[in-house]
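One-letter codes give the sequence; the fold follows as tokens. An example follows:
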Amino acid sequence: MNKTIRKALSALLAIGILLTTSLTAFAATAGDVNADGKVNSIDALSILSHAVGITPSKFDKSAADLNADGKINSTDALIVLKIAVGLDVNVMSKEDIVKLYNDSVNKACKQSKCTLVVSNDVDAVVNKVLIDGEEDPDFNTIFSDILESAKFEDEKFTFYNGKTLNGEKAEDLLSSISLSASEVKAATAKKQDGGYKLTFSLYSRTEDLTDNNDMSELFNFKSYIAEYPFTEITAVVDSNGRISSVEAHIVANLEAEANNADMQLYMDVSLTQHTTYKFSY
């Protein structure tokens, strides 16, 4: 395998790894699934009916998932009953949890001093690579060497009043870990040490990178598709409402077909990445 091919494959892999790193409010009253303006045992019964496959004719799903775990079941019905009898229930919608998370990230940007350490651990599996239509029997060994050399070292950033000494803005560097409610499939929030432990499961997504990548100088792309079937994020918010840590577990499948003057390339690679962001103040 010549140096040009090796360089090209290394760059394609690096793009894939970097891509995996660059990570509507309730219309109804929570629990009022029949929209009668009350939260009571009738709503709880409706939720239980829905959970066993018998959905009432008037049933608002957006008001039924009270613990925002992506499921409508007996747990939600129990929360409704607690609300109905006046017990103190901390009900947070998915949108509430996403806002809590984003606010904690934004608060980190406004501290007089904040240190961030980013760590990455990446594994990759070569499903298929064709060069001029043929497989290289030695490619898996070569690819292992490429992956080893592509591993990231820990990155450290220190912000003073929202900027590094080089003038980089914290809000720009942290924008990649912000979330929108539309991309979150399920969210949970648990109180912990005066703050919260948050978990997010994101919807699967597909990105077409054919015309949006940094490899145009080396290749003409016929197609370059990145699929993200699984993304899970765990975050800890401290007692002061600041983000303390974020852990992202991402699975990505990359498929590219390209050519240049020297060769035709087809690559199908699966990546698993675990990225950790640790904040100190």
In short: Residues 41-91 form one domain. The radius of gyration is 23 Å. Strands lie at 114-131, 134-135, 155-159, 184-192, 195-202, 205-208, 220-237, 243-259, 264-280.
